[in-house]
Amino acid sequence: MERIAGTPVSFVNVRDRDRALKFYCGKLGLTIRSSDGFGDFIDMGGGALLRMTVFPEYSPVPHPVIGWIVDDMSAAATALQSRGIRFTIYEGMGQDEQGIWTSPDGKSKVAYFTDPDGNVLSLSQA
Q1: 42 with 32: CB under 8 angstroms?
Q2: Contact predicate 33/90, CB 8 Å
Q3: Is residue 48 in some structural domain?
Q4: What is this structure's pTM?
Q5: pLDDT per residue over 45-75, tens digit each?
Q6: HSE on the CB side for 71, CA within 13 Å?
Q7: How far apart are CA 108 and CA 102, in angstroms?
Q8: Complete DSSP assignment for 57-103
Q9: What residues contact 95, with CB distance under 8 A and at least 6 apart?
Q10: In CATH, what number is assigned to the domain containing residue 60?
Q11: CB-side exposure of 74: number of CA atoms within 13 Å?
C-alpha cells in the first residue's frame, strides 16, 4: 500500500491569536509560514506544520496535543524554562524538579507543559 504523500500538519485550537503567536513563535521559537483570516500555519521544523486556528469559546483537552522528540531532555527543558516555560508536575508521577519523568529502565523521558490556552504539549526523549 502506498503511503499518503504530503506535508504533515498538526492542529491546535486557541482562544486568543496574538497571545498564542507570542507563545509559539516567541517562547518556542517557531516561525509563521502563512496566515489567513482563520489562523496560521506555523513551521515546526523537519517539514511539519502546525495549523493554529482561533475559536473564542475553545476549551482544551487534558491530554497532549503536540509533542517534540528531543536528543537531550534536560538541555531542552532548561532552554524552555529560561524562556519562561514551566513544566507541569503531576502528583504521584515521580518527576524530578524540572518536571521530567524518567522510565524505570532510565531510557525514556517525558515532560509536559501547556500553552496559554491550556493545551498540553510534551517533550520526549527515547
Answers
A1: yes
A2: no
A3: yes
A4: 0.91
A5: 989 999 999 999 999 999 999 999 999 999 9
A6: 0
A7: 6
A8: T----SSEEEEEE-S-HHHHHHHHHHTT--BPPPTTS---TTSEEE-
A9: 87, 89, 101, 111
A10: 3.10.180.10
A11: 3
